Amino acid sequence: MSDDPLPHSFFARPAPEVAPDLLGRVLRCTLPAGTVELRLTEVEAYQGPDDPASHAHRGPTARNAVMFGPPGYAYVYFTYGMHFCVNLVCGPGGVPGAVLLRAGEVVAGLELARGRRTTSRRDTDLAQGPARLTTALGIDRSHDGADLDGPVLRLFPGTPPPAERIRSGPRTGIAQAAETPWRFWTEGEPTVSPYRAHTPRRR
DNA sequence: GGTAAGATCCGCT
DNA sequence: GCGGATCTTACCT
């Protein structure tokens, strides 16, 4: 990977526009233990303040402050008492938005990622799910606000999939605005759960 | 000062 | 498919 990282201007668009453009991109995380690189296969967009599912919906707080800052930085939060999730802050000035990284394929640092994900039975499970993804990369709250063109986190152009392989659907695990198709994934990737490719039943 | 819900994962059935 | 683990955040009284 000798390409230059994507510039901050890449993120200076609404999150629902940036999200599909993140598929196939490569996120590198460099820590004292070593480097892990992840090719993104599934993401979700959150665009506040009118998005009731977004952490930014109720205005700025100590936790979500990074979402209200400039694009091109990481927003990391803790949830369910045991998990971290990482977002990439997006959006034109003044509009809080972010893209949650849900899944990816480990393309470098496989041994290190396996060591962090001891419960994983297959390599495709290493970063299948937003909390597994942060564990595999070694990301925690200390990376909240980290520059995506910085010494720890860097996002490289990678190889985006052809447009016909990009799918979208409802976001996962949230009660509000579940009908908004702001989840994007690459069709045919083993790191994306197959059942998610189908339209969920309505009742 | 108390409480309910949460952008989840894992093991068991 | 279901429920437990585990704790922070935000909101209410």
Write a concise keyword list for the protein shown above.
203 residues; mainly beta; 3-methyladenine DNA Glycosylase, Chain A; eight-stranded antiparallel beta sheet; 3 helices; 8 strands; 11% helix; 29% strand; DNA-binding
Question: How does the SSE layout of this entry go?
Answer:
Blueprint: H1 15-22, E1 26-31, E2 34-47, E3 74-79, E4 83-90, E5 97-108, H2 110-116, H3 130-137, E6 153-156, E7 166-169, E8 183-186
Antiparallel strand pairs: 1-2, 1-6, 2-5, 2-8, 3-4, 4-5, 7-8
The structure holds a DNA duplex (13 and 13 nucleotides).
Average pLDDT rating: 90
Structural class category: mainly beta
| Percentage of residues in helical conformation | 10-25%
Cα distance spanning the termini: 47 Å
* CATH topology annotation: 3-methyladenine DNA Glycosylase, Chain A
CATH superfamily: Methylpurine-DNA glycosylase (MPG)
Which series of helices and strands comes N to C? HEEEEEHHEEE
Overall number of domains: 1
Flag low-confidence runs.
Answer: 197-203
In CATH terms, what is the architecture? Answer: Roll
Strand percentage, roughly?
25-35%
Give the biggest sheet. 8 strands, antiparallel
Total number of helices = 3
- Which CATH class? Alpha Beta
- Rg (C-alpha, Å): 16 Å
Overall shape: globular
Q: How many beta-strand runs?
A: 8
Describe the structure.
The protein has 203 residues and is mainly beta. It has a single domain, classed as 3-methyladenine DNA Glycosylase, Chain A (Roll). The chain is 11% helix and 29% strand. The chain contains 3 helices and 8 strands. Strands 1, 2, 3, 4, 5, 6, 7 and 8 form an 8-stranded antiparallel β-sheet that branches. The chain is globular. The model is unreliable at 197-203 (pLDDT under 50).
